[in-house]
Design goal:
Layout (H helix, E strand, L loop, with lengths): L1 E3 L2 E3 L9 H65 L6 H22 L2 H17 L3 H26 L7 H32 L2 H34 L8 H17 L15 H61 L24 E5 L2 E5 L1 H6 L17 H4 L1
Antiparallel strand pairs: 1-2, 2-4, 3-4
Length: 400
């Protein structure tokens, strides 16, 4: 627009650019930011969520195994009592069954262990009720031991205890999973020694051979549990270890060595072990194994809780990053200048015969000039709001 004759000349204006075109570039820029950032956030979220689910599953496995170890010890004691024709400790077995039942009620559905637990529980209740004795008890309780090991394997596989976590936690879990096998092997070895002592002369040699094999198996399983625990403790700083765990590990190692030393038990010419000594040593080993199992699982749960806290912090960080990223995008969009209104390519001055018009247009060189009313007042001319249009030049006919 140009000033002319005290007014404002309005020339034909080209139309402004389209609002859609003006918004296209910012939208593309925002898309180039949002897509990669969104991809990174989603990947980080999925990874952190998977890690959180894995740690939660491992902690469920630990919570389930805590009462299982005492149950295996109670069943092993019941088996030995039945083999000796002694009274089975029914209350101890039932208390252990109730503890595992509570754990299965809470975690069994997610771990898929209820079927195996039901089979084990029913078989134990059946043996407690029928109370077989002697060699028949040894064979009957062997089924219970197999069912218990199957339940432990199911919990371990479903929770990922045997495969997940850092190396130290992994070996702690493997050591804890080995302890029920130590309890079962100790019970079988003790029972075979007892059966050999009470067997007929023609059967004594067979039981002695079986007890020697069972002792070797016990020594092997106890050594495996001890080696895994040593490695786990070695991978952890001394200031981070629970002193109770170290003490329980030493007690377990000593008890296992008393019952089944690594060197050969019976050399040529040596007399077989005394049943009373073996039973006493087995009781000490069973107590040490249960205590070590509880402390080991508690230490493992502590480490898993720490890892779960780290994973939770990562999830919170991902959420905060996502909120900041997308909030920044929305803020950037909000700060964009608003779209300008489209201008028309020409200005039309309409004449209004009423008294509510406020400007006059004068034609000059085919242009319209808007006269400012204040300009007219400055020259002392009376301006009435209305039509105030005058010709800037005469028509060709008038000029003639």
């Amino acid at each position: 627009m140009t000033a002319h004759a005290g007014g404002t000349r309005v020339r034909g204006l080209a139309a402004g650019s389209s609002p859609a075109r003006r918004m296209l570039v910012p939208v593309i820029v925002m898309a180039l930011i949002v897509v990669p950032v969104g991809y990174i956030v989603v990947r980080a979220w999925l990874g952190s969520s998977a890690a959180a689910d894995a740690v939660a599953a491992e902690r469920r496995g630990v919570a389930y195994l805590r009462p299982v170890v005492p149950l295996v010890a109670a069943v092993s004691s019941a088996q030995s009592a039945a083999v000796r024709f002694d009274q089975i400790p029914v209350e101890e077995v039932r208390d252990a069954l109730a503890d595992v039942g509570a754990a299965d009620a809470e975690h069994g559905a997610r771990l898929g262990s209820t079927t195996r637990w039901t089979a084990l529980r029913d078989r134990i209740n059946e043996l407690v009720k029928t109370s077989p004795g002697g060699a028949a008890a040894y064979r009957a309780f062997a089924d219970v031991s197999d069912l218990a090991l199957a339940l432990i394997a199911k919990v371990s596989d479903s929770s990922g205890l045997a495969v997940g976590g850092d190396p130290g936690s992994h070996r702690l879990a493997r050591s804890a999973l080995q302890l029920p096998l130590v309890l079962i092997d100790a019970g079988r070895y003790t029972d075979l020694v007892m059966l050999s002592d009470r067997a007929e002369e023609d059967q004594r040699a067979r039981y002695a051979t079986q007890s020697s094999v069972a002792r070797e198996r016990l020594a092997s399983s106890a050594a495996a549990a001890d080696d895994m625990l040593r490695t786990a403790l070695g991978a952890t700083g001394a200031d981070e270890l629970d002193p109770a765990l170290i003490g329980r590990a030493d007690a377990f190692r000593t008890a296992a060595g008393d019952v089944a030393p690594v060197e050969q038990l019976v050399d040529a010419g040596e007399s077989p072990p005394l049943p009373g000594v073996v039973v006493s040593g087995r009781d000490q080993l069973s107590k040490a194994a249960v205590e070590l199992g509880q402390v080991t699982l508690a230490e493992l749960d502590t480490r898993l809780a720490d890892r779960q806290g780290t994973v939770t912090a990562d999830l919170v960080g991902v959420i905060i990053a996502a909120v900041l990223a997308f909030g920044g995008v929305l803020w950037g969009l909000w700060l964009l200048p608003p779209a300008q209104r489209d201008r028309r390519s020409s200005v039309v001055v309409a004449e209004d015969e009423d008294d509510d018009a406020s400007a006059a247009a004068v034609s000059e060189d085919d242009d319209l000039v808007l006269l400012d009313a204040r300009t007219l007042l400055g020259h002392g001319e009376l301006v009435r709001v209305g039509r105030a249009v005058q010709r800037s030049r005469q028509e060709p006919d008038d000029a003639e």
